[in-house]
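Course exercise 7: structure representation. Students receive a sequence record and must write out the corresponding structure in token form. The form below is the worked example handed out in class, using Polysaccharide export protein (211 residues). Read each field label carefully; the graders check that inputs and outputs are placed in the correct fields and that the protein name is recorded exactly as given.

STUDENT ID: A-19
EXERCISE PROTEIN: Polysaccharide export protein
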Amino acid sequence: MMARSANGYCGFLLIIAGLLLAGCKSYYLPPATVQNSLTTSVDNYQYLIGPKDTVSIFVWRNPELSGSFIVRPDGKITTSLVEDVVVSGKTPTQLARDMEAILSKYIRDPVVTVSVNGFVGPYSEQVRVIGAATNPKSINYNQYMTLLDLMIEVGGLTEFANGNGAKLVRVKDGRQLTYELRLDDLIRDGKIGANVDILPGDVIIIPEAWF
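STUDENT ANSWER:
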């Protein structure tokens, strides 16, 4: 009798669970917002300020308005005169001109110079390596960076990586383009012809080999 009651109770729980699952509806998140890099070739690269960078703003003859500021996660800084100044996505020169326009409301003919420390940059300008790399991670882009430079940064391939099955994903004019890579040829066989230019925003995907 006890075993029959226990079985009946378990069956009842399974029925309830089935009804609950049947009433649940799956939802899918929309795709991530595509942020195009502003760099379209290796020759037109300019560093863009991003969150966590430290910007030093020097206002000539106005030391009280000068200082160093850490860019907030929302891409803004707070100065002594203005609470929210958008700086993310701008070059240091662009920010200097913007600060001159802002400060001209308070002082006459401001002259501003901006320098950057930290060099994190916006996410849209970082390069990402995922999959079967020794140390997959996001990397700050440097001008004229190549695939070989990138692989040195991540420590090369793992033992089981399928390097010649790797892909490079690049967003261009709002379209996602995928390119074939030959990492085994480049790293394991030393074929320098397999080296290619890297641009800000590139994503390298390295699969594992199937044995």
